[in-house]
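Tutorial sheet, problem 5. The two components below are modelled jointly, 736 residues in total.
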Amino acid sequence: MGEGTLDRITVRRLAIPLTVPYRLAFGAVERFDTLVVECAARDGRAGLGEATVLTGYTDETIEDSWRAACEIAGELAGLDAPAAQHRIALQLPQRPFTATAFGTALEMLEQSAALEIARETAVPILGVVNASGVEAMSRAIEDLLAAGYRTLKVKVGSALAKDIAHVGTVQRLLRGRARVRIDANQGFSAADGIAFVRALDPAGVELFEQPCAAADWDAHLAVARSSNVPMMLDESIYGLADIERAAELQAARYVKLKLMKLGTLGALAQALERIRALGMTPVLGNGVACDLGCWMEACVAARHIDNAGEMNGFLKARAQLLEEPLEVREAAIRLRPGFAPRLALDRLEPYTIATHHESSRRYRVRRA
Amino acid sequence: MGEGTLDRITVRRLAIPLTVPYRLAFGAVERFDTLVVECAARDGRAGLGEATVLTGYTDETIEDSWRAACEIAGELAGLDAPAAQHRIALQLPQRPFTATAFGTALEMLEQSAALEIARETAVPILGVVNASGVEAMSRAIEDLLAAGYRTLKVKVGSALAKDIAHVGTVQRLLRGRARVRIDANQGFSAADGIAFVRALDPAGVELFEQPCAAADWDAHLAVARSSNVPMMLDESIYGLADIERAAELQAARYVKLKLMKLGTLGALAQALERIRALGMTPVLGNGVACDLGCWMEACVAARHIDNAGEMNGFLKARAQLLEEPLEVREAAIRLRPGFAPRLALDRLEPYTIATHHESSRRYRVRRA
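Model answer (structure tokens):
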């Protein structure tokens, strides 16, 4: 076994409560169900990767992901990083989030250039209007504006009439002081999606995201044809084939990616550039991820994205994974050279549900 | 959740090399592939249980057992011990060894009377003649006799003519100074088994164990009918139904059990007594188990067995699981009151391949 052999692989299963429940079309998220992968090679190099499972957004469940991650850890111990990366790629189609935790940990271990930050860089992020009721919404919006946010996200997709009124209220309260991204998270039928865009005042609306079910491209196209605001696809998009399809069908001006859909930082950067090459605009960021995943996405956004990032999940969590906080100032993540992510194990202890550790010893014994 | 809730469950996967390879009909064992289960309740009670997987003896493989044990640990966290015991029982038919690690850990946690030792008790064990070549065999036999062993085990079942000669050599070297148990570990066809017993000098032979495949009762009966020494069944016997069948068919005078086949100390004691009630003689003990499993079997043997125990696996291992050594003097395990098994974690570190830990926190979070 060489010095690059993966000597220790640890997977931790965490349940991290949110400061307030995060309302999505398919239900409220009360906590992040997060797997953190830690890989260490014999030569001392190490890497971390995150998967925060969001059942409803993908088919992955935390129980299945945890079970699979434990097995994968056992398969990778004793391989070198390239061989491990190859093994992980086989898991990507079935379990993209889980595979990403391993794939990115291996990239970090291999000191991927994607995570290198030469000078302090501001990565603007959007704010989420998570409140309901005019008074609470007004307070939330003024707070976000005061904090420097110039792009706000509004969630719809649960009840048509209420959603129309809700967006109208946001627009009235905003008075054009920030762009609005409207996200239905697949919550609308084609008919409701069409009714929604017909009722929508386009003033200040940057885009309307994923009205219909991920696999129902016809429904999406029907809504897109009726829409007077630009469309974005999110849940419908996983790999390059989906991106090509979106361009071919002229289904959207924007395509949103998340690191956890792509498996690796390298694949993410490639996909973002492909979106641009096809004449669309890439949007990046995971609103349901901890600081580790958001930091990685911010590093990629710094090179490949020119609009507000959606990697703000860590701001919703009651605890951070990393010792060193991810700094946010003036509605932007501040990336600094030399940022060295280390798990805050003591702080995470109360949120740690399970731990799985594999070493490469089995191979040493076998070959002895 | 009550005070009896299982709060922490840890499974460790160990690979413990043997001092010398252990030769069995289906191959040489180079190391013990061992799972150790540790359960702890909120009230501080804790228990340990062992499964040392021996593929070939059962269908269980260490990879499958490890995977299953990780899943089971997750299912048990947050239950109380009786509910957990019920859940484990469902795993017994498919994975008896793995289930036993959990079942016995729960019994120890519940302070099972089966593990209580009121006064120092000697549990005689047998010695294994593992050498080949007359000189080495002679030395091994004299050493065993000098150490007090009065029952010796000889392994056959790999090559008929060699086996016949081997047993003859043992008998010649022994000159009646100890009983001989001959074990074929399913290695013979019916024809070879018959040829073997016809060639066998019955002098000093206590019994002949499991000549043929576990499921091939006809082959066993054919050998038994030709045999002039008492027969024992081992691999053919799992539960009570097999014991009844052995009695009904008059297939054996001896029936051998191992804790890891039965799932719990309670079920083991019950099965041993059933063997006796049916007019047969129970034999107990696992030659492929560490000190933890052997200690539990010795506790049961102290109450239920009147011949040499086979729980000598721990004497073959290069490392012991427990802090406090299991004392052997004059060819007997010396059970002492107040023996408190604790894992020797530091000493086991080099042999620990993987660790899986589950807490009941997930339930606390869910119900919050």
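Marking note: The first helix of chain B runs from residue 62 to 76. Full credit if you identified this.
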